[in-house]
Amino acid sequence: MGGLMIKNTSLAMGLAAVLTLLAGCGSGEENPAPDGSTITINPASTKWTTVKDDACAIGYASVDDLYIITVEDSAGNPLNNVKLTLFLDLAAGSTSITPVMELYDNGSLVTSPYTTKTEASGTKAVTVRMWYGCSLAYKGSLHAYSGSIYGSAPLEVEAIDAP
Q1: Which of 4, 40, 52, 85 has the CA that lies 20 to 30 A from 153?
Q2: Residue 154 lies in a domain
Q3: Contact 114, 83 (CB under 8 A)
Q4: Closest CA to 64 of 113, 7, 115, 125
Q5: Taking the model in full, what pTM does it have?
Q6: Which domain holds residue 64?
Q7: Are strands 137-146 and 38-42 parallel, antiparallel or unpaired?
Q8: Category of 11 on φ-ψ map: left (φ > 0), alpha (ψ -120 to 50) or beta
């Protein structure tokens, strides 16, 4: 007699469900955006310009910017409950404090990379805190991934000579 024969229908259905769940294990993705989708970040970029203060007489300050990340399918429909991985990346520049960029979700500081999901509207709102002052200047990016879909927004703090 070869093969496995299960006479109990409930047991067979339960086993099928378990095998289906196990087949999805190890992929590391929970509801990623399907191929052909888009991720947009608004604002698309941010640049803050400050006056150089090499003596650091004024000190450091920060500014918080709200970013809306939108995930849509190929037809432009919003995708809710889609897994997103967000992170901040410091590209180049001089820094005298760390971190110079921080990621917040609902007012709470989160560790980058940060995993979250889109809301019913197909969006996710996060805040990026950027530090400036004392001639601090740098470039970086906010990145958003879901499966093979990617979006980013460049961030910059520039320190210029006083006019």
Answers
A1: 52
A2: yes
A3: no
A4: 125
A5: 0.77
A6: 30-160
A7: unpaired
A8: alpha
Residues 60, 149: Cα–Cα separation, whole Å: 36
Which pLDDT tens digit goes with each residue over 76-119? Answer: 999 999 999 999 998 866 666 678 999 999 999 999 899 999 99
Q: Indicate which CATH number applies to the domain containing 57.
A: 2.60.40.10
Q: What percent of the chain has pLDDT over 70?
A: 79
Q: Per the domain annotation, does 54 fall within a domain?
A: yes
Q: How many CA atoms lie less than 13 Å away from 3 in the CB half-sphere? A: 3
**Local structure of 132: helix, strand or coil:** strand
* Per-residue buried b or exposed e for 9-33, using 16+ beta carbons within 10 Å of the residue's own CB: eeeeeeeeeeeeeeeeeeeeeeebb
Residue 10 lies in a domain: no
User: Considering Cα of 27, then 28, then 34, then 36, what sign does the dihedral take?
Assistant: negative
* Location of structure tokens 């960029």: 101
- Total domain count, the chain: 1
Mapped onto helix, strand or coil, the DSSP state of residue 35 is coil
Instruction: Kindly state whether residue 21 falls inside one of the protein's structural domains.
Output: no
Rounded-to-integer distance, Cα 37 and Cα 11, Å:
38
Q: Write out the E strands in the chain.
A: 38-42, 46-51, 61-72, 83-94, 101-105, 108-110, 114-117, 123-132, 137-146, 149-160
